[in-house]
Design a protein that fits this description.
single chain, 366 residues, alpha/beta, TIM Barrel, 6-stranded parallel β-sheet, 3-stranded antiparallel β-sheet, 13 helices
Length: 366
């Protein structure tokens, strides 16, 4: 199941064009929860309020090597990338939100800036912002540690609905859409500009790897420059509110970048039909262990695959994998959570048994 790096690069290029001759399969190992995923890097981060000075870039480098070696051992078609620590809400913090770490759960969260709801002000983007500067500090350190073994890719960047929820509060942003729509439109416009400026700054500093860019967590690589957008908080919006406030921002962001990929947690609102018509380079629909099954999402998968490459990432059961096998394979990639290298190998074998490989000679890949 080991696939040479050159072959993985070639297959990901074909996948982006929806010209792959079989679905791509890779694995994500290690904890979902970032403070647990990076135990050495997280040891200087306090339980509670976090400042940029609490984040020591050098401490994350050994964790990076360990995660890379895990991915190499698991094998598959995808390309692991090191990124500025994806456990920090970098965008929210640079907008003035507080950051709280919870070592017990292994996660972090943001808190609204004091007084934002009364006086909503979005700052100008600058690389001198302490949170932006700390995020960018990771890039040269990770590039040195890579030594050409793996790309340094884009970090987690939450989308406009997520940022509204962070600034106004998870309930307050929806009420504000009804009570003060003009205000929310103005804030969305400013947030979109801030997001684009943040993304451009990140990509400006990223080194190319084999002529392309890697990404956090899902093992994707694209030629040229790639960035990730997500809209987790959009799941709680009505279709009308999403169309009115968030969709235009997503369209603008997608248009501004060479390759912009979108991550969604499919739940109540799954705007695949709208997003498939944008300039997005690909769409990722996540499989959560307590969320909808692959079988219940087939119509959304097919809607995306008619126009865009699709990534299905997350916790796939055997039944999910069987269902995913039956999808059109052009443009399909799977980034599957595995609890161990042995589990990844068993999943790979299941994929071959289910006939994933079509006419491809897989004797060199097993």
């Amino acid at each position: 199941m080991w696939v040479p790096l050159d072959a993985r690069v070639a297959r990901l290029k074909s996948w982006l064009k929806r010209a792959n001759d079989r679905p791509l399969v890779g694995f994500c190992l290690g904890s979902y929860y970032p403070l647990h995923r990076y135990p050495e890097g997280s040891r200087t981060i306090p339980n509670g309020v976090v400042s940029p000075d609490d984040i020591v870039v050098e401490n994350f480098l050994d964790d990076t090597d360990r995660l890379y070696e895990q991915h190499q051992a698991a094998g598959g078609d995808l390309i692991w990338a090191a990124t500025p620590f994806c456990g920090m809400p970098w965008l929210e913090a640079s907008l003035g939100c507080g950051v709280i770490a919870d070592h017990r759960s292994g996660s972090t969260r943001s808190t609204p800036p004091p007084g934002f709801a009364e006086h909503p002000v979005i700052p100008e983007f600058t690389e001198a912002n302490p949170w932006v500067a700390k995020m960018l500090e990771f890039i040269p350190a990770l590039e040195r540690r890579s030594g050409g073994r793996f790309p340094v890719g884009v970090t987690l960047m939450r989308g406009i609905s997520d940022l509204l929820a962070a600034l106004y509060g998870s309930d307050g942003f929806i009420l504000r859409m009804y009570d003060e729509p003009d205000e929310v439109h103005a804030v969305v416009e400013q947030l979109t500009g801030f997001w684009i400026a943040f993304g451009r700054a990140l990509l400006k500093h990223l080194p190319l790897f084999r002529g392309g860019t890697g990404s956090f967590f899902w093992g994707l690589w694209c030629p040229g420059k790639m960035i990730w957008l997500q809209e987790d908080a959009a799941a709680v919006l009505s279709p009308a509110l999403y169309e009115k406030f968030i969709y235009p921002a997503d369209c603008r962001i997608a248009h501004e970048f060479e390759h912009c990929l979108m991550h969604l947690h499919p739940s109540r609102l799954i705007p695949t039909a709208q997003l498939a018509r944008t300039d997005l380079g690909a769409i990722e629909l996540h499989l959560d262990h307590d969320g909808p099954t692959a079988a219940s999402l087939v119509s959304h998968y097919k809607t995306v695959l008619e126009r865009k490459p699709l990534i299905v990432a997350g916790d796939a059961t055997s039944a999910d994998l069987e269902c995913l096998m039956r999808l059109p394979h052009q443009g399909l990639a799977l980034s599957l959570v595995a609890g161990s290298v042995d589990e990844a190998r068993r999943t790979w074998e299941q994929a071959m048994t289910l006939g994933f490989w079509g006419s491809t000679d897989n004797s060199k890949e097993s």
